[in-house]
Automatic annotation (TrEMBL):
Cross-referenced PANTHER family: INTERPHOTORECEPTOR RETINOID-BINDING PROTEIN, RETINOL-BINDING PROTEIN 3
A Gene Ontology biological process term: proteolysis
Name the record gives this protein: Peptidase family S41
One Pfam family recorded for the sequence: Peptidase_S41
GO molecular function list: serine-type peptidase activity
Domain Tail specific protease: 251-441
InterPro entries (alphabetical): ClpP/crotonase-like_dom_sf, Tail-specific_protease, Tricorn_C1
Domain of life: Bacteria
Length: 474
């Protein structure tokens, strides 16, 4: 009997161990419910589709869905952690057992003004990374803003309150996009409250002033197959590259009739939004890479190159790095980023600049100004690791964080700066911008700067060439 009992105990113990092993075995299927580490997202994956949801403490709103084939190549899974790789960034998700209760419930009235305000406020409270850096008292901003609206407030009231909040938060990438009708009403209201200007001054667009400068600088023009960049040679075999934007380079075969009707950028973005994020990045990089192949071949015999991004408001970081790598001889870390998460941050992600097979290693001069923003900040930040590159002009804008895109219940789009970028030594350049090696003291005001350049193009060029001479002498 004793032997029999022991055998039964042994059998029971083995069954228990096997059961426990099965229970705690890691599930390596991508199917399931995933919660982002930071970023406020839920990702639901089944055998054929994926669905993203934006989640706050009080809401769960569908944001994007599609066929699993669109994102499958960007996904890796290990020990119940899902990693989605987009561009040079890795976004981590943890498996959760059940779909959050908020996501199962019928949402409140999607057009309720107070509900929309609270979703916006909760998103900022949880994800804005710069309260401390910008000396923002969030509780004060929240209470004062909430007191301006009530159950009788209109969508126009909501928009104006949020717009005012964004100014107080000093968020470089913070934005709110209402309907066209609400935007026009707000603009008319704001304009009617402004005093008449005593003097009307000439105003320039970013692309316009960039084109004026490039036309004046370039003596031998090699530009072809694009209006987003101009390149060629100045006097004395100096190469010059004017980059107007860090996006719009994908070959999307946009409809010419739609371009005439709605403009290129609007038509391009409509087609661009039909691609998933992985495709967007790949197409943008492919487009700029093709152009840079031509540019570097055209300018390879120059004595040095000037890259002008003073009027460039940004775009895609991946485009900026694809441009800059043409001047890089070895793969190197150029930055680190982390995102706001709970009371701390996500794991740091190193960012690398890839090498070029035949890099241009002669002197390069990057022209920047306070209008050089976003992805243009990124090219300046990354350039700090290139010994053959010097920056001239004035510090960049300092809008370096990525913009976390979200939707309100009423379907307005908004964004929040939720990431902190630093150089590889931990220095933050948000707000203060990336400094230059040679300061030309450009005006901070956008139109004042543009007019100062346009009103004396020769002086602008001479100042640049003198700066280069002094840097060469050092």
């Amino acid at each position: 009997m004793r032997i029999k009992i022991n055998l039964i105990l042994l059998f029971t113990t083995l069954c228990t161990l096997i059961s426990c092993s099965s229970k705690y075995q890691k599930n390596n299927s991508i199917k399931g419910i995933w919660k982002s580490v930071g970023y406020g997202k839920i990702l639901k994956i089944d055998s054929t589709t994926y669905k993203y949801f934006d989640i706050t403490d009080i809401s769960c709103l569908p944001s994007k869905e599609g066929n699993i084939s669109e994102i499958k190549n960007a996904i890796q899974i290990s020990n119940d952690t899902l990693t989605v790789k987009l561009g040079f960034s890795d976004y981590q998700y943890s498996r959760i057992k059940e779909f959050p209760i908020l996501c199962k419930q019928n949402p409140k009235n999607k057009n309720d003004i107070l509900y929309n305000f609270e979703v916006f406020a909760n998103t900022y409270k949880n994800h804005y990374a710069y309260f401390e850096l910008n000396n923002v008292d969030w509780d004060n901003v929240y209470i004062n803003s909430k007191n301006k609206i009530n159950s009788k407030s209109t969508e126009l009231d909501l928009y104006l309150v949020i717009k005012d909040m964004l100014e107080k938060l000093k968020d470089n990438h913070g934005s709110i996009e209402p309907t066209d009708e609400i935007y026009e009403l707000a603009e008319n209201k704001i304009q009617s409250e402004l005093e008449d200007e005593t003097e009307e001054l000439r105003e320039y667009g970013d692309f316009e002033i960039a084109g004026i400068v490039a036309d004046y600088y370039i003596k031998e023009d090699f530009t072809k197959d694009t209006w987003l960049m101009k390149w060629g040679k100045m006097e004395n075999n100096v190469g010059y590259i004017q980059i107007k934007a860090m996006f719009l380079y994908a070959d999307l075969n946009v409809n010419d009739s739609l371009v005439k009707e709605n403009g290129f950028v609007s038509t391009y973005m409509d087609a661009f939004d039909n691609l998933n994020y992985e495709q967007q990045i790949a197409e943008e990089v492919a487009g700029i890479s093709k152009l840079m192949d031509t540019i570097m071949q055209d300018l390879k015999e120059t004595s040095h190159i000037i890259i002008d991004v003073r009027f460039n408001g940004g775009g895609q970081d991946a485009v900026a790095l694809e441009i800059l790598r043409r001047f890089n001889a070895d793969r190197k870390q150029i930055a680190v980023k982390k995102a706001k998460h709970n009371n701390g941050y996500t794991k740091k992600t190193p960012i690398y600049l890839e090498l070029a097979k035949n890099p241009y290693t002669k002197p390069v001069y990057l022209l920047t100004s306070q209008q050089s923003a976003s992805a243009t900040d990124m090219i300046a930040l990354s350039s700090m690791e290139l010994n053959n590159l010097k920056r001239i002009g004035s510090h960049t804008n300092g809008a370096i964080s990525d913009a976390l895109q979200k939707n309100l219940p009423n379907r307005w789009h908004f964004s929040v700066s939720n990431e902190i970028y630093t150089d590889k030594n931990g220095q933050i350049y948000e707000n203060i911008g990336v400094p230059v090696h040679y300061e030309l003291n450009y005006p901070n005001d956008r139109q004042t700067f543009f007019r100062s350049v346009a009103n004396d193009l020769e002086k602008d060029k001479i100042n640049i060439l003198k700066a280069i001479e002094k840097l060469l002498d050092k």
